[in-house]
């Protein structure tokens, strides 16, 4: 046992897989909902992108 081992707090286990998994997901699996109907309280935004040379 090293002298630092007794002073360290116990390790905690993270459960990243429960709510989040790193990586690229298919667009339709995460954002696209074909049967979604907009509501009066929804905020919609549009952006104009100007191509740069």
From TrEMBL:
InterPro entries: RuBisCO, RuBisCO_lsu_N_sf. The keyword Ubl conjugation does not apply. It comes from the Eukaryota. GO terms for cellular component: plastid. Its EC number is 4.1.1.39. SUPFAM superfamilies: RuBisCO, large subunit, small (N-terminal) domain. Gene3D superfamilies: RuBisCO large subunit, N-terminal domain. It catalyses: 2 (2R)-3-phosphoglycerate + 2 H(+) = D-ribulose 1,5-bisphosphate + CO2 + H2O; D-ribulose 1,5-bisphosphate + O2 = 2-phosphoglycolate + (2R)-3-phosphoglycerate + 2 H(+). The keyword Iron does not apply. It is an enzyme of class 4 (lyase). It is found in: Plastid. One of its GO terms (molecular function) is monooxygenase activity. One of its GO terms (biological process) is photorespiration. Keywords: Calvin cycle, Carbon dioxide fixation, Chloroplast, Lyase, Monooxygenase, Oxidoreductase, Photorespiration, Photosynthesis, Plastid. Belongs to the RuBisCO large chain family. Type I subfamily. PANTHER family: RIBULOSE BISPHOSPHATE CARBOXYLASE, RIBULOSE BISPHOSPHATE CARBOXYLASE LARGE CHAIN. This is Ribulose bisphosphate carboxylase large chain. It comes from Glycosmis oligantha. The gene is rbcL.
């Amino acid at each position: 046992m090293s002298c630092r081992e007794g002073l360290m707090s116990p390790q905690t286990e993270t459960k990243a897989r429960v709510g989040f998994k790193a990586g690229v997901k298919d667009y339709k699996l995460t954002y696209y909902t074909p049967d979604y109907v907009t509501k009066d309280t929804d905020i919609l935004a549009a952006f104009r992108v100007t191509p740069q040379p």
